[in-house]
Amino acid sequence: MARLLRNIFSLRQCKCLFVSVLLVCAVMVLVALKLHPDLVKAPFYHEISNNALTSGGKTQTSPNKERVDQQAGDSDWTDSVQFLPHTEPIVTSTGGQAIKGYKAFATQNLENVVNSGPIFYHQKVPSYYPASPIARGDTPGGETQSIARPIGNLPENVYISQGAAPVNPKDTPIFVPERRLVHFDLKGAPPKIDYLQQLIPLIVQLGGTGLLIEYEDMFPYDGVLKSIAATNHYTRAEIRSLLKVAEAYKLEVIPLVQTFGHLEYALKLPQFSHLRENPSVPQALCPSQNESFVLIQNLVDQIMSLHEGSKFLHIGCDEVFHMAECAICSLKPKDDIFLSHVHRVASYVTSKYKVKPIIWDDMLRHMTAAALDDAKLGDLVEPMVWVYAEDVYRFAGSYVFDRYAQVFPSFWISSAFKGAFGETMIVPDVTRHLENNLNWLDVGRTESPKFRQGLRGLAITGWQRYDHFSNLCELLPAAIPSLAVNLLTTSRGYYNQSLAPSLYKALSCQKAPRYEKIPELRTSRSDRFLHEKMTMCFFPGAHFFKSTGRILRLEKEIEEFVLLTTKRKGWLTEYSVRHNYSSPARIDELLRDLPYLSGSLNAVAKQTMDMLKHIFDIHTVSEWMEQKLLPLFEKLDRIQMDAATLRSQKYWPVRPLKLFDGWQQYGLNFGSVFNLNETQFSTRH
Q1: 66 catalytic residue (yes or no)
Q2: In the 3-class helix/strand/coil scheme, how is 373-399 assigned residue by residue?
Q3: Do the Cβ atoms of 483 and 545 come closer than 8 Å?
Q4: Which of 10, 230, 431, 633 has its CA 20 to 30 A from that of 214?
């Protein structure tokens, strides 16, 4: 055969033929992998089988095929959201027999109560594969429910999800807070009410149980407080309509009103400026003035007039940066001032409205248990421990919870889905927020047993501004993917592949291979904003979310263009502009990309305005565009104007150029250093 080939083809032709065959084979392999990526897909212990996605989590088995680990009931969990009371005395076994004394049963048979293993935070994937059909979730239809149940000797509001994951006795059980609140921060950037109403079904679908609403200046205050309300505030009818939708979806609503610090929206006005603790800073009020407490009473009364059925009221009290500064308060210890004011406000709220006050905990963290106990706060308020960084214990160590547990029967925790990693961000870093929320689940599971009544709930905050005077953070529609990932994670107690169907269904994503897997947020930061993953999803505000990806890319291009033309290249620098001295030909070379960038920016701005007009009013849209897009317009305009000035020059002076005459304002006297008198220096200038 070899001789025959040598007679027909030359050696060079044989080599070319061999290479051609290899190339054809390689192309065929690549096409096959593109059409059928599962051909080289390594089996993953925690991947969902196709049957699991179509049979409500119940795996169809055969004698010769190993079962694929799955999360029972997860795919259809979003179709019917169910919440269980604090206790359930009777559960059902696989044989249909009622089992009494559930807690004892669960403690002795932990692995028989929960489903198959999740990927635990900071833990390896459990290698345990339970033999029990209950533990695998292979019970007959209707006998195993995907609902949360109390377990063992943990506090009654510490939950694991029976339809969520099995637990090796060596592993820690899944922890899901009983209450899972989504924070609506409305200060100075109010989404339209119909947009907020669109989000409520999504929140319920993802496992949310309530809303924490912070109105600040968007509430329709009247009477003596009328001047506090922003001119574009909500109407009472709009707020009632929002609360009505929340009630229809059985969401608990907790209002939040600041009562000590973060009162800039009131104290900035002449009418209330005399109540400032520091006359020059409208951040915190002076608790020693009786009028200050009257202001707080009026704020609480008007907010509660639209929240008569609330069981809780969040009274703020975080970041009180100015205390003991006025003539009266400076005579008292800061801690005494703070505790006394909180006690007074909480007592008023409790006695008049029969609600439980919640306060941010940061002002309490350094205090001793004895000081808190002496202030008698334990029976009055519940602390909400907030940390938005990934490492929760770094900012609220275990000792903080030890002290709180000695004083307070229960506590809250607070994470974030936006507005925590930069005052001017456009879209949230979902990777960082996910780590924060997963870490909080770990902390909540560890610290909850210390409290007599355990953990009350979790609030996932979405800050609109860092304070009243700050620029806008990420707008709400840009943060919906982050909200979905983090709310679903905290509602299930874990983050792994089994959440994919629920996540993408809630976000109205099209059916495509890319949506068979959960976003790889914990192993890669390449898509930490989820712009690539969410290209085929159509949740409320999805168009604007996708546009933020284009805005970020365009912003980077413009910044690089400005850096190149004004810093790295030597013909359009500040020196060139100051002395009107450059090469017109070089200027033309530098500006080749300017028309493209200007046109792209103008198109993006028009699209942004068109998309946001359905979600926000004109004031919010204009403010956001002024903060995020206008600086880009101005940078390009400046380059264009400077270039036009430099190109208009027809003649140029001989060197050396005129001396810069502004050095003296920086304390630099060139004349004296170079031994020039004033006449000589001015001549050179």
Answers
A1: no
A2: HHCCCCCCCEEEEECCCCCHHHHCCHH
A3: no
A4: 431
Structure tokens at 484: 């979905």
Q: 50: which residues sit within 8 A by CB, 6+ positions away?
A: none
First to last CA, the chain: 91
What is the distance between the alpha carbons of residues 443 and 392, in angstroms, rounded to a whole number?
8
Q: Which two tokens stand for residue 586?
A: 């070089």
Is the bond preceding residue 656 a cis peptide, omega within 30 degrees? yes
Distance CA 315, CA 261 (A): 10
State which amino acid sits at residue 28.
M
Backbone phi, psi, residue 638, to 5°: -65, -40
Structure tokens at 56: 């409500």
Rg of the chain over Cα atoms, rounded to whole angstroms, equals 32
Structure tokens at 653: 């002076």
CA 129 to chain CA centroid, Å, is 35
Q: What's the rounded Cα separation, in Å, for the pair 434 and 443?
A: 14
54-66 confidence digits (pLDDT tens): 333 333 333 333 3
- How far is 502 from 417, CA to CA, in rounded Å? 18
Distance CA 332, CA 290 (A): 17
Number of separate helices (H) and strands (E) present in the chain: 24, 15
Residue range 449-489, pLDDT digits in tens: 999 999 999 999 999 999 999 999 999 999 999 999 999 99
- Distance of alpha carbon 534 from alpha carbon 537, whole angstroms: 5
3-state helix, strand, coil split of the chain in percent (to 5) is: 45, 10, 45
What would the two tokens of residue 465 be? 């501004």
588 or 16, higher pLDDT: 588
Does the pLDDT of residue 414 top 90, yes or no? yes
Q: How far apart are CA 542 and CA 536, in angstroms?
A: 9
Distance of CA 577 to the CA centre of its chain: 43
pLDDT in tens, 261-278: 999 999 999 999 999 999
Distance CA 486, CA 436 (A): 9
* Whether pLDDT at 109 is above 50: no
Query: What is the spatial distance between Cα 385 and Cα 387, in angstroms, rounded to a whole number?
Result: 7
CA-based torsion, 484, 487, 491, 495: positive or negative? positive
Beta carbons within 10 angstroms of residue 268's beta carbon: 17
> What SS3 class is residue 509?
strand
Q: Does the model's pTM come out above 0.85?
A: no
Contact of 549 with 529, CB cutoff 8 Å: yes
Three-state secondary structure string covering 300-355 = HHHHHCCCCCCCEEECCCCCCCCCCCCCCHHHCCHHHHHHHHHHHHHHHHHHHHCC
- CA-to-CA distance for 476 and 465, rounded, in angstroms? 11
> Which of 47, 308, 319, 435 is flagged as catalytic?
319
Report how far residue 147's alpha carbon sits from residue 82's, in angstroms, rounded to the nearest whole number.
7
Place of tokens 């949230």: 428
List, in order, residues 6 or more apart from 252 with CB less than 8 Å away.
179, 181, 209, 210, 211, 311
Q: What single letter denotes the amino acid at residue 517?
A: K
From the CB of residue 326, how many other CB atoms can be counted at a distance below 10 Å? 17
* H-run or E-run covering 122: none
Backbone angles phi, psi at 462, to 5 degrees: -135, 80
User: What are the tens digits of pLDDT across the range 518-532?
Assistant: 999 998 889 999 999
Q: What are the start-end ranges of the H helices in 538-617?
A: 542-563, 574-579, 584-590, 594-612
134, 69 Cβ separation under 8 angstroms? no
